[in-house]
Structures are given as C-alpha cells and as structure tokens.
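Morning F.,

Quick status update on the modeling queue. The single chain you submitted on Monday has been processed. Sequence for confirmation:
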Amino acid sequence: MIDINEVLQLLEDPSSKNLICRELEFRPQNLAMFIATLSNTTEEYGYIVIGASKNTDNYSINGISAGFKIDEAIKRALGILSEQPKIDFGRLTVDGKNIYAIKVKKITSDIFFKPTQNTESQTDLFIRDLYLACIKLQTRKLYANVTEDERNDFIADLLETNGYRLKDQTRRGSSAAGKSSGEVDIFVEKNGMPFTIIEALNLDSLNTTYLDTHLDKIYSYDTAGNAFNVCLSYVKVRDFGSFWDKYCDHAKKHVYPVMLISSNINADKDYSYSDIRFMTTTHNRSGKTTHLYHICVKIQET
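Structure tokens below.
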C-alpha cells in the first residue's frame, strides 16, 4: 500500500535521492530503467511519482487525468528486467490533483535489462545497461577520487554480472602512435564475436588534445568494424552543463579516422538525468554505417 505521507515527505525535500518525478511517463522501457535505478538505491525504498516535476529548489504537482492507467505499462516494464523487485503502485490526490506513485523496494542484487533478439535492440539494451552502471558509479563515494582503471573495473564488474563477456585492458589493434598493440579499456564480446569497445578517460576540463587521442584510438582498436562503440568520459567539473555543450560542439567538428556522416546531440532524450549525458556520431566505415556513443558522467566533488 502506498503511504501518502512518505510521498509528501519526499516531495518536500528537493535533495531527495530516492525520488523520480515525471509529468507524464508510460513507456515501459523508461519505467523499467527508473525501477532498476531505485531498486539499487542506498535507501530502503524509492518512489516514482507521475504527475509531478522537479524544479531547482522544490517539486511541483502538475496532476494527471483521473482516467490515467499505468498497470499494463508497469507489467511490461517488470517483464524487461532481469530481477523482479517488490513494488506497490496507486493513485493519490495531493492538493486536489491526481498523481500516480510507484514504490520500489531496495533489493540486494543488481538489476539489468533482459536480452532481446534483434541487433538494434541489443545496442539499445547495452547502452541502457551501461547507463545504469554509470548511475551506480555516481552513487559510490569510493569512486569520487580514483583512477580511470578503478572506475573501469567497477563498470566492467556490473556489466559482467549481467552476462556480458568482457576483456579488460586487452592488447588489441595498434596504439595511437601506430607502433604496437594498444590496450583497450573494455572489450565486449557476444556469442564469441566482437560486440563493442568502451574507451574510457578521466576529464577535469575539455582537454581536446587528450580527448581526440582517445576518440581516434577507438578506431585503431576496433579492427573488425563494430556496429557501435563507446567513448566513456568520467567528468569532474563544476559546470557540467557548460562542459557538455562544449563537448558536443567539439565532437561534431572532430576529424575522425572514419568519415563522419552526422551527429545527434538529442540521442539521450529518453534519459532525463542531467548529470549523465550522451550523444552519438554516425560514421561511414568501408561502406557501412557505424555509431559512436559519447557518454559523459559527472563525478561528484567530495
């Protein structure tokens, strides 16, 4: 049963870490991501509130139609997840307006998305799982002041828990200098075949020379021509929004080792978190279209 007092208490605290508010949301994949995030929170439970929105220093109750139904969407969302967390949900009335609250209880095991059958969905699934791993990295204060390798180990461990076959720091391809094999940060296989490469780096500013080296290394390491690869930046800056705008501008103008076709700075439109952002660049590699996901994760100051 939903406790309206619990919901009101969370809505009164703009710093609540176990509350996700959306004006309207009924897409199963997004609900599944929110449920997975809250099920691994440090708190005993968390709430998804539909019909409310977060402002700078408070939450606003927007309300939803009394006829709004979410039962089927929640059922489908749970069906996507590898584990079934305990949830309660129901409609509440706050200040004369209807909201929908979903209570998610904490569980000890990590939750990811179940695999699907088609190739395009496999890419989306992997990006969601990686995104969830990044959310969990942000919550661990232990990783606020550590090396890139230590953060990579955490991400790799979570992905392996979900069944991905990973090879960490694999010597593969050519180095940036082109003299000998370089070290891939995280090399992912699927069914014994190369699936994707994650090239990671720590950034405390937009060091374009350093970033360009890592962007170019991806194509040296990817000898087969994967359908997609990832450049994952662990970013420690004060103004993450400004950093992200500059990153996008640079990524769109960078001269890649393979032809740049287009870029999409709104690739993360279904992921509404402000401190994890991603965009994509699309490339022509030997006549085939490939994608590079640029993911930037804000690492909180301690």
